[in-house]
Amino acid sequence: MIRFIKKRSKKTGLPPGSLVHIGKKKEIKTKITIIDYDEITFQELEIEAPKECIIYKDKPTITWINVDGIENTQVLKDLGECFSIHPLTLEDILNTDQRPKLEDYENYIYIVLKMLSYDEKEEEISSEQVSLILGKNYVISLQESEGDIFNPIRERIKNGKGRVRKAGSDYLSYLLLDAIVDNYFTILEKVSEKIEGLEDEVIKNPTQETLNTIHNLKTEMLYLKKSVWPLREVVNKLERGELTLIKKSTSVYLRDIYDHTIHVIDSIETLRDMLSGILDIYLSSVSNRMNEVMKVLTIIATIFIPVTFIAGIYGMNFSNMPELGWHWSYLVFWIVVLIIGVTMIIYFKRKKWF
Amino acid sequence: MIRFIKKRSKKTGLPPGSLVHIGKKKEIKTKITIIDYDEITFQELEIEAPKECIIYKDKPTITWINVDGIENTQVLKDLGECFSIHPLTLEDILNTDQRPKLEDYENYIYIVLKMLSYDEKEEEISSEQVSLILGKNYVISLQESEGDIFNPIRERIKNGKGRVRKAGSDYLSYLLLDAIVDNYFTILEKVSEKIEGLEDEVIKNPTQETLNTIHNLKTEMLYLKKSVWPLREVVNKLERGELTLIKKSTSVYLRDIYDHTIHVIDSIETLRDMLSGILDIYLSSVSNRMNEVMKVLTIIATIFIPVTFIAGIYGMNFSNMPELGWHWSYLVFWIVVLIIGVTMIIYFKRKKWF
Amino acid sequence: MIRFIKKRSKKTGLPPGSLVHIGKKKEIKTKITIIDYDEITFQELEIEAPKECIIYKDKPTITWINVDGIENTQVLKDLGECFSIHPLTLEDILNTDQRPKLEDYENYIYIVLKMLSYDEKEEEISSEQVSLILGKNYVISLQESEGDIFNPIRERIKNGKGRVRKAGSDYLSYLLLDAIVDNYFTILEKVSEKIEGLEDEVIKNPTQETLNTIHNLKTEMLYLKKSVWPLREVVNKLERGELTLIKKSTSVYLRDIYDHTIHVIDSIETLRDMLSGILDIYLSSVSNRMNEVMKVLTIIATIFIPVTFIAGIYGMNFSNMPELGWHWSYLVFWIVVLIIGVTMIIYFKRKKWF
Amino acid sequence: MIRFIKKRSKKTGLPPGSLVHIGKKKEIKTKITIIDYDEITFQELEIEAPKECIIYKDKPTITWINVDGIENTQVLKDLGECFSIHPLTLEDILNTDQRPKLEDYENYIYIVLKMLSYDEKEEEISSEQVSLILGKNYVISLQESEGDIFNPIRERIKNGKGRVRKAGSDYLSYLLLDAIVDNYFTILEKVSEKIEGLEDEVIKNPTQETLNTIHNLKTEMLYLKKSVWPLREVVNKLERGELTLIKKSTSVYLRDIYDHTIHVIDSIETLRDMLSGILDIYLSSVSNRMNEVMKVLTIIATIFIPVTFIAGIYGMNFSNMPELGWHWSYLVFWIVVLIIGVTMIIYFKRKKWF
Amino acid sequence: MIRFIKKRSKKTGLPPGSLVHIGKKKEIKTKITIIDYDEITFQELEIEAPKECIIYKDKPTITWINVDGIENTQVLKDLGECFSIHPLTLEDILNTDQRPKLEDYENYIYIVLKMLSYDEKEEEISSEQVSLILGKNYVISLQESEGDIFNPIRERIKNGKGRVRKAGSDYLSYLLLDAIVDNYFTILEKVSEKIEGLEDEVIKNPTQETLNTIHNLKTEMLYLKKSVWPLREVVNKLERGELTLIKKSTSVYLRDIYDHTIHVIDSIETLRDMLSGILDIYLSSVSNRMNEVMKVLTIIATIFIPVTFIAGIYGMNFSNMPELGWHWSYLVFWIVVLIIGVTMIIYFKRKKWF
D9-284: what fold? Predict the structure, then answer.
């Protein structure tokens, strides 16, 4: 649950633009990596003080500044000063409980979205907030902790493969976004495998445990939906071609991400529908089992209660009970019992009770 | 329930613009505080007669008039005359059952919204109506009773921290709105903690009490939704930049409130979905318990009814029952009983009844 | 149900514009009252022949013609001729099964809406159709039967209080609409009180009767929704300022009605949601009661069936049953019975069955 | 079900515009009736060969060609050639599984919609497809079989009553559409009577049969919705005044049909909601009955099982059972039994079980 | 399930435009067939190397290149080079998990959609992705495996029947799309037959198997919906007439496909609604059966438990039980038993239990 509503209350009463980190403290040291490249040159370095970035601000080469760990608010403040980032943007970066959104601040575009990963131990989806700041010739990416999702992009820039070295900062942002969105499919595969497993279980052996799993998966899907749904609008804004920082040639690539996002949303809805279906089956299975229990009880009771009554009769101690003295009484008793039993069984067979 | 539909009936038949207070009488004395400031000067005072405000109407400094307690209709009337406020606006201020809305009356903007607080004793969300009147260089805020939510803003103006002393009345309204919206997150945290608690309870020990709690929380969420949903449109109108009283530089801050509002609405929907999920589990848990009760009954009955019948047979008093005289009959009886019992238990084990 | 679908079949095959009354016949004599006023003069009279109205058509004073009882089609025909009203409008006035709507016929605006009242005996909402024809300097209001809802307006015009004597026919229509919409709140209060009562009943003592009440209230809400929902569009059309017969100064008042309409619709939806919630609780309470019945049965059966079996054993008549002769057998029997009983009770306590 | 998805498969692989009849073969001979009129002249005749129509194509009088029975594709082909109707239109006329739609082919407007009738025997709604082709001065109406719904219009043209003889082909189409839409209200009345009947039945005596009736009515409503819903858009297109073949003076009449269509759709939704409500009550009634059955079982079992145990005790044959010899034992036994019984009954009364 | 989310994970980390086949490997050899025609000439041939296509690129005749089997990425690469197809298009062709979509790349239009077929053995709908590339005078169609759905079109071109030889590449695309959409109706017929079968089964003999069938059909409908829904937008884009490659004369045909698509979507929704209805009946039937089982149990228990108690009484061994010695006791016992039995049966009859 904590994943849904993060504690913002410590910010109550502070003026807007106050830099306070909201979210789970991860005690991660901030690490700033810079990749600076154009078609010919390539440079990769790690810096300590964010102020060193200032030289890259107006350099014509493309600069990608990657920040892992954002709990150190001073680093962010310095970075904000270097690239004249609006205080509200900095506040949003620190508040890791953001809805994905895109904001156009004329000199840069601020994009915030969720990077998801599936925690196999906890069996739940965990998310990290990724902020992208796209300027004319630089991209700043900020993650909560160090991840390996951007490594292939780093390699590609290094090797100069593909369009990347020839294209601008908008294409680089596209690559980063694409890596994140592509990753969503991996999560969906995980979840869909789980649901597939549930489908079998719910028919063959539904337990209270199954119900909890269904409930947990539903909560996961809710979380997934909440993280991905607003992305649609974000990518749509990027793709529509109304932002001056996005070149027209990049638009076709962004359209591709848009399609992927729609695909992810679609799949989430489908999986949610399937989960509802599975819940229906579960409830119905439980009800069927109850039915079966009732049938067993009824069959046993219906056969034995009447014959027990007959046995009870001849256990009575009335002085004048003629049948007691007859020679074949006991045999007749057994015959009657058998007739009652067989009749009942035929009756149940006809009712298809077993 | 009373919170949902307030008694408007006492107004039926009155002409429009009639000043009648609708809502729970709180017997609160009206208190008017004035804060008047610009970049250099700062003045804070409390006044008795609302007519004293007239001097602030056209003064170039920014004036914030805060009114706590609105049941005294005369005060409102005088205030309305001072600032030429439309009678319908005054009527709306007094009617504390308003939907959040924004109305543009050219010389001022009227905003009405709900300030929420969580009443720990009653375990319910209570709300107060806050009205804001934003003029060219004044802001009038009207609350039902004295609250402490605006205190940090008062402090900030006094200390001259942040943008506030340099910015206009629109920025001041932004700060007031921001304080109210930020407060919603506190309510959401409370509710989400409650729901988290429910999730455990519903699996481990679901009672009728749990059901009532679920129902109450659902009603709270309904109330929350009703109070917050229309706010979206209000903030959107403010932020779109079509109002002449809102400067462009404030727009970016209002966009931030808009994001927060969307976030709150989103979270409400998520919490509602979770509550539905919890209700499903509750119902299913109840059904599972019933199932278990049935199984116990069936196991006991199925084992003992047949053997009781056998015991009944040999309690019969027929004169001719050969088994009664045999020496090992009693032992055989016990063996038969045990066989029946064991068979049944194996059968139930196979059916996974225990 | 009759309230939902009125018999239109008697009109099948008739040409459009045929004047046939559709709805419950109420045998009400048509009564025409005229109020003619401007800022200075005021005149109130009742007329017999609708043709007498003709003098008011082009008179510069504001004329309000109120018609109670519309079953007399001839009256309508004459009125229609006087004010050159389109045959389709007349047809719509007579057909009391209209959805609320607004139609602009250039020389007049035709508005039809529902006046609701709560019938305490039948415990249901009953509705009457009210038609308004708004011309340049006249307003014709037509009701199915005589009502007292417009009396305060009549008084206000007479006394010359408020804006009404200075304003035009559009302001008069606003007053009529406002009276009708304000009345909806009274209905909502009634319904919400009923629902509040239900909430308690459903938890404490749910019966089949409760279910019927829930169902009836749901049907009432459906009816309410059907009557009010289309009003939103009607008032929106009025308020948007595209109609030449509506002056700009009246717009702000119509916006107020629009807010009220939205508020009513909102409240209806909220009440519907609450009813759904109450139905859920009802179903769950019923299920809980069943559960309790089952538990009592199971506890009794589980304790007594085994001990009855034991008693049965020692009622057998085998010649060779050594226990029968032992001296302490009977005491041992009682001890065994007590042990079984106590064990069972502990077991049930642990399972929290009682 | 066959009503929902008609066999289109025989058309698979054929080129577009292939004239193949899709739907239930009704073996109806095609009958072509022509009514040709203007303000002064009137002529009614039946023709054999569709080619005879050619003279009416450019005649200034209004011509209404009514075709009953469309299975003869040759007739359609000839007609299509006469009036230069697009092959796709002809294909659509023959395919009786169309959604209602309107297509503007510049020289004519093609409208297809459903004529509904209630089959009292089968207790289901049956539908027939009606196609209208509206040209400059002719209207072609095509029905699957001969119907009497257009007779009043025929009469009205003959007698020259109303606007019809003075108005153009667009007004004639309006009359035809109006006749069809008005007929929907008859169907709705039938269905609403059925639902009213159900409401009583479901409370007083719910059986499996009731459930089937609910299900069938739900399916009927689904069918109704499917047939009427798209009509809204059709009439809206007609009424908007963007079609050159529709004169402005007819627009006001089409607006009337639009209102009726909305009314029908609204009523369908309301009836569907009521059916859902009835299903809820049904399910709850069934559950209540089960509850009552359980109570009877539990009361009987709870009273008699303990006392049977006591009787069992004193049926035991232990040699040493002091109570057996006491003189008042039997009386005490009866007193104990009565105490147990009365206690139980008081307990059940308190629980409100009966 | 695998049909819903295909493994995209092997693409994670690859640059955009990487040609990797996603989907089930079918080991199908790529086969390229070319049909080249205009009004006079016609040529059909199969080629090996895709590079041979280059001559058709700018030839004024219409060329239809059909590719069966797309797993060979080299073929696609070559084809892409010949017709200057964007790498992202090629990537999309290979990724068989696409949502239907249309993309306009100025020199060509790329359409991707699903070809559905019903697998009778697996009782599920299987789908194949079909990509269409529509250039100025060529159409490239790419299928996952060889199908016979386009054969009638091939024949029609060969025979020169219909408009096809006179029309352009856009008309050819229309024919291909039409063939695919028409095929959907066949699937719907299959599914609707299944549902019809279910409707009977669910009332007469509902089993756990029925539930599984309902669930499977629901999943199929979900899959169908997912495949068809986005097609609406695709065809709408084509038909709107904003694409320069689509001639106006083809628009009317595309509108026809649009209608079909809407019809398919409508039918899917209707079938889904029916399935929900069937599920409701199933659940209710199960509940009714349980009810019946309970009644049998209760009738048997309620009749026999009291009389067994009476029999138990007279099996007691108290020394002083006067009734035991009376002569008519046994007869009286039987009379009492019969009275109890008959009373119970009358009681149950009144309650309508049987």
Answer: Beta Polymerase; domain 2 (3.30.460)
Start-to-end CA span in chain E (Å): 46
Element (H, E) at E63: strand E62-68
**Residues E186-195: tens digit of each pLDDT:** 899 889 989 9
Min distance E54 CA to chain D CA atoms (Å): 30
**Residue range E237-249, pLDDT digits in tens:** 998 878 889 988 8
What does the domain layout of chain A look like in residue ranges? 9-284, 294-350
ipTM of this predicted structure = 0.83
Tell me the fold of E293-350: Methane Monooxygenase Hydroxylase; Chain G, domain 1 (1.20.58)
For residue B325, give the chain C residue with the closest CA.
Answer: C319
Is E217 in contact with E80 (CB distance < 8 Å)? no
Q: What is the Cβ-side half-sphere exposure of residue E288, based on CA atoms within 13 angstroms?
A: 20
Q: Which fold has domain A294-350?
A: Methane Monooxygenase Hydroxylase; Chain G, domain 1 (1.20.58)
Residue of D nearest to E191 (CA): D5
pLDDT tens digits, one per residue of D326-345: 989 999 999 999 999 999 99
Tell me the average confidence (pLDDT) per consecutive run of 10 residues in chain C, 354 residues long. 64 76 78 91 88 86 91 88 91 89 91 89 86 93 87 88 84 93 90 88 83 90 91 91 87 91 92 91 87 90 93 91 90 94 93 82
> Nearest CA to CA, how far is E159 from chain A (Å)?
40
Q: What is d(CA B288, CA E180) in angstroms, rounded to the nearest whole number?
A: 48
The reply to whether E293-350 shares the fold of E9-284 is no
Q: How far apart are CA E150 and CA E67, in angstroms?
A: 12
Q: In a 3-state reduction of DSSP, which class is residue E106? A: coil
Whether residue C1 and residue D297 make contact (CB cut-off 8 A), yes or no, is no
Q: What is the dihedral of CA C120, C121, C122, C124, to 10 degrees?
A: 0
pLDDT tens, B53-99?
A: 888 888 889 999 999 988 888 888 999 998 999 989 999 999 888 89
Give the bridge partners for A47, in sequence order. Answer: A32
- Can you count the helices (H) and strands (E) in chain B? 10, 7
pLDDT tens sequence across C111-121: 999 999 888 88
- Nearest by CB to residue A315, choosing from B193, B203, B316, is B316
CA-to-CA distance for E294 and E337, rounded, in angstroms?
Answer: 23
Write the single-letter amino acid at C242.
E
Residue to mutate among C129, C234, C300, C316, with most D CBs inside 10 A, is C300
Which residues are registered as beta bridge partners of C141? C66, C132
CB D18 within 8 A of CB E162: no
β-strand partners of E107: none
What is the 8-class DSSP label of residue E65?
E
d(CA A182, CA D188): 52
CA–CA min distance A284, chain E (Å) = 7
Residue D354, Cα to own-chain centre: how many angstroms?
43
Spell out which residues of chain D touch residue E179, defining contact as CB-CB under 8 Å.
13
Give the separation between CA E163 and CA E171, rounded to whole angstroms: 9
Q: What CA–CA distance (Å, rounded) separates A163 from A160? A: 8
User: Chains with ≥3 Cβ pairs under 8 A against B?
Assistant: A, C
- Give me the residues paired with residue D101 across strands: D112
Who's near C184: CB < 8 A, 6+ residues apart? C116, C228, C260, C264
Please state, as a whole number, how many other Cβ atoms lie within 10 Å of the Cβ of residue C74: 10
**Cα–Cα distance between A277 and E214 in angstroms, integer?**
10
**CA atoms of D1 and C333, how far apart (whole Å):** 68
Q: What is the CA radius of gyration of chain B?
A: 34
User: D47 vs chain E: nearest CA distance in angstroms?
Assistant: 31
How far is the C-alpha of C296 from the C-alpha of C303, rounded, in Å?
Answer: 11
